[in-house]
Amino acid sequence: MNFLSRLSVVLLLCFVDSSSAASFSELFGTDQYALIGVSGCNVTLETKLPQGSCPSHFTDEIEPSKERCVWKSLTLLSDSSNSSLTLPQILAFGSVGEKRVVLLKSLDYPDRIVDGKKMTTTVMTENSVNVPQLEGLDPVNVLYDSESRILYVISKSDKSTFIINSYAVLSRPRANLRLRHVYTLPIFEEFARLQWFSDPYKQKFYFYDKSQYGDIQIRSIRFTDFIRSVTVPKQSTDALGILDEILSEDRFTISVTGGVVFSAEYAAVNSYHIKSLQESCESIKCDFHENTVVEQVFLVENWDYCKLRDGHKADYETCQKERKIFSKEEKISSDTASTLLKIVALLVAILTIGVIISLIITLIRFQKNLQRMKESTHNLTISSTIHA
């Protein structure tokens, strides 16, 4: 396949993905997923979203709860090792009313169907417990390394310096969080003030910052490189981690999990964008209610999802078999679509080349006809001169 046809394939792939409604399963790379949204005191969990639909958490006006909740940090705690039956939870630092709290919120699988999707709505203070060991901290960021089971709490030590407290998560039963303090280290202010996110499924910490050009750069660091990276001075945040995505400067309330970035755009029509960091073209755009405020979004997937769905009956091997079936079906669908796109791209390339050749032939004929007309005119002029 020549350069022109390869270029056509790329353009057509992006065109198809941006103009048609991608399914959430395709975007997330799995049909074993649950989407969790936090807005004030409200927590929604949705799954099995129909193609062409949008999460209710983005599009519906959420009724305000009796109490006012403000969150400084929201972190997904996950243990996706195949031997663990521990369910995913949310660790929340903030305030409920006038009271400062540190809550460990347990999640439940949806028990009702709304507009074709499974959904449940709860309040953060319901089915949650306090974490007294962390109550004295005032964090700017909280991260969780699910591989090493290390919790990092970044906070101010005084007006000008920041520290990072590291805790080993010894156990995480449904009604408790047992921690052991490991160490405290200084962290550079430019790294502490970044917006950080934990991704247990990609084993990465994501962060974002505005570049000198005003756009938003999303970068990532592997769990294993985190401490070494943020405790060593660098000239700028551009030297930290790997650049994964660039968003326009008009994006707000950004979240990253499962290799997917969620961001809001406030314009004439408010929109929420869901985009895969692995697939450069695939995205879903949802218009949302003007009174909707999405503070953070989490994606729970695969084994964590199966544990939420099946509870104590969850079986890792059964969950893996389900995932393999989806992967095979997705591969067949993807291969078929890719083949069709290549055929269309090849046809477009052939038609383009045909049009170009036709234009060249027309141009050559025109030039020949023009030359003949010039020769004919010249001969006529000579003949007239002779007769005269």
From TrEMBL:
<protein>
    <recommendedName>
        <fullName>Sema domain-containing protein</fullName>
    </recommendedName>
</protein>
<feature type="transmembrane region" description="Helical">
    <location>
        <begin position="343"/>
        <end position="364"/>
    </location>
</feature>
<keyword id="KW-0472">Membrane</keyword>
<keyword id="KW-1133">Transmembrane helix</keyword>
<keyword id="KW-0812">Transmembrane</keyword>
<keyword id="KW-0732">Signal</keyword>
<feature type="signal peptide">
    <location>
        <begin position="1"/>
        <end position="21"/>
    </location>
</feature>
